[in-house]
Write a structure and sequence with these properties.
The complex is a heterodimer of chains A (about 120) and B (about 110).
Chain A: E1 3-7, E2 11-12, E3 18-25, E4 33-39, E5 46-51, E6 57-59, E7 67-72, E8 77-82, E9 91-99, E10 102-106, E11 110-114
Parallel strand pairs in A: 2-11
Antiparallel strand pairs in A: 1-3, 3-8, 4-5, 4-9, 5-6, 7-8, 9-10, 9-11
Chain B: E1 4-7, E2 10-13, E3 19-25, E4 33-38, E5 44-49, E6 53-54, E7 62-67, E8 70-75, E9 85-90, E10 97-98, E11 102-106
Parallel strand pairs in B: 2-11
Antiparallel strand pairs in B: 1-3, 3-8, 4-5, 4-9, 5-6, 7-8, 9-10, 9-11
Classes of the chains: A mainly beta (about 120), B mainly beta (about 110).
């Protein structure tokens, strides 16, 4: 069955770089796109960016200068890197599969806290 | 960016009650509108896609409608498991944007 699981450090210092991994199973990254969505504590959902089945990427324009999404199809992994982290980047980060124009499967999310 | 405004932000309701959540886009989105449910443990699942199509496995008490800039999610008769957060999301144009969420609470 389709599964996505996020992993990464729970705590990142301000101005440092965040690196997250989304490991997927039950589908191929060359058949479906994977997106990242984040949720600050007590707030709503914000689309972060995507890597499409063909390997191209899309980023939220507000984050684009700090963001990079890549993948390793042989390992079924998608990577998010965001630099120059600030406290407002504290959030739960979800990866989610996009199919038929909606997010049909979601990971459980990983909490990232930006603090010194 | 297309702004999505959800109302109300919270809604106390009773078991068996019929409720409607609204979502308004800052411009027309041609029915490119999805709805999601987030449970208190954080898990998110799709409910409705392309305005009115029920995701497989979602109970028929959930329905969606709308057009242009105005959309709605209706739950015909609330069950205990329906008390959760609900989000609309547009995919008419990038960046995909979500509404601010509606918290459905037990009255």
């Amino acid at each position: 069955q389709v599964q996505l699981k996020e992993s990464g450090p729970g705590l990142v210092q301000p101005s440092q770089t965040l690196s997250l991994t989304c490991t997927v199973s039950g589908f191929s990254l060359t058949s479906n796109s994977v997106h990242w969505v984040r949720q600050p504590p007590g707030k709503g959902l914000e689309w972060v960016g995507a890597i499409w089945s063909g390997g191209s990427t899309d980023y939220n324009s507000a984050l684009k200068s700090r963001l990079s999404i890549s993948r390793d199809t042989s390992k079924s992994q998608v990577f998010l890197k965001m630099n120059s982290l600030q406290t407002e980047d504290t959030a739960i980060y979800f990866c989610t599969r996009y199919d038929n124009n909606y997010f049909d499967y979601w990971g459980q999310g990983v909490m990232v806290t930006v603090s010194s | 960016d297309i702004q999505m405004t959800q109302t109300p932000s919270s809604m106390p309701a009773s078991l068996g009650e019929r409720v409607t959540i609204s979502c308004r886009a800052s411009q027309g989105i041609s029915n490119y509108l999805n709805w999601y449910q987030q449970k208190p443990d954080g898990t998110i699942k799709p409910l409705i896609y392309y305005t009115s199509n029920l995701q497989s496995g979602v109970p028929s008490r959930f329905s969606g409608s709308g057009s242009g800039t105005d959309y709605s999610l209706t739950i015909s008769s609330l069950e205990p498991e329906d008390f959760a957060m609900y989000y609309c999301q547009q995919y008419d144009s990038s960046p995909w944007t979500f509404g601010g969420g509606t918290k459905l609470e037990l009255k």
